Amino acid sequence: MKLSRLILMSAIGIATMGASCSEERATEQEKDPQEPVATTPQEDCQPIDRGAPNSPEQKPTFEGQTRACEIKSETAIDVQVLTKNLKKPWAVEPLPDGNLLVTEKGGQMRIVSATGQIGNPITGIPKVDARGQGGLLDVALGPKFGSDRMIYWSYTEPRQGGNATSVARGVLSEDRSRVENVQVIFQAQPTYDGTMHYGSRLAFGPDGMLYITLGERSDIEIRPQAQQMNSHMGKIIRIAPDGKVPNDNPFVKKENNLPEIWSVGHRNVQAAAFNSQGQLWIVEMGPQGGDELNLVEKGKNYGWPAVTFGEEYSGEPVPNAVTTKEGFVDPVYYWDPVIAPSGAQFYTGSAFPEWKGNLFVGGLRAQGLVRLRIENNRVTGEEHLLRDRDQRIRDVRQGADGALYLVTDQENGELWKIMPKQ
């Protein structure tokens, strides 16, 4: 076990298919950083009852690594459904004025007003390959959006011989009807003829750099590239906002290593967020069993497909894989059965004081919003909210008003606003 996973990191500028086999193949399936935080004891508590694990032979490498204590919010929440008329939404990004940018998997980006009015598609978005899990995926405001109106988005770029994840940026016009001066700033390599595991979350770090999460494209023949340094597959990427490679990236001067790579050995990351201490946390989709919460560190290897808590969808072991191995970083936490994580947000608002510093994760398979209490880089409590709505949650983001905004994964997708009940 790597102790570096278990200690607090200083803010040094480093910086969510695990549904079921059928789901994945059909649709995809804080506290003050200067103040020490006491860890809540794990005794005399019960985890959330999620049934028997898929891989009962896999055992945690340390206490509390899975099935943490169930916690329950004391604040009653109100769910306002802003609209039910989105077409397979994938991401939501609150704008400073209270309106919301939403991407739709088929290739449309729209603005939804704070009252739920859906705008026309924003023009200027490049063509996407929307087969399988592909399409128009994440969207993020640039670090200087207030002055330059720059937005960034990830998408499945159709290419000769297949496709891959690409990231573009452009200026949102003053009337917000189009994007202008569009530039493709990153193209994952290699191109591959497949329809799964594009990753695609975008997160700007406190260092001003853009972090891009990528999948390993799932298929058995390309999966090993998650461990190969001449491939972007199964990696987290770090680039400057203009697409240039920072000189302090860990592999920038190593022969046959792609310089954009920040970390290695990921399966399919569709959930990523920075906390108030500047740490990058990801929640990645495992195979059958083995969704992982990882604290990402520069240059580290997170194991896939050599190290995993999960198994193949057939029920067979992942070939030549083990649960833990020297030289690979153990996950901070894992789920078995899986939640199929997509979208992540550390809560920093004032609307829900008891949620301060908690990590929220959208659950596709879990059909709810997962809340994690993290103390001393360990998960000490877990809650599954909104389960009564039976909806696959694709993304979660916090607005300037302290509300959480969620989009659901369905043909007639919904946009929800979560606030305390009055």
TrEMBL record:
Domain Glucose/Sorbosone dehydrogenase: 86-416
Pfam families to which the protein is assigned, alphabetical: GSDH (PF07995)
Disordered: region residues: 20-63
Biased composition (Basic and acidic residues): 22-34
Domain of life: Bacteria
PANTHER family found in the cross-reference section: ALDOSE SUGAR DEHYDROGENASE YLII, HEDGEHOG-INTERACTING PROTEIN
UniProt-recorded name of the protein: Glucose dehydrogenase
Organism annotation: Pontibacter amylolyticus
Gene of this entry: gcd
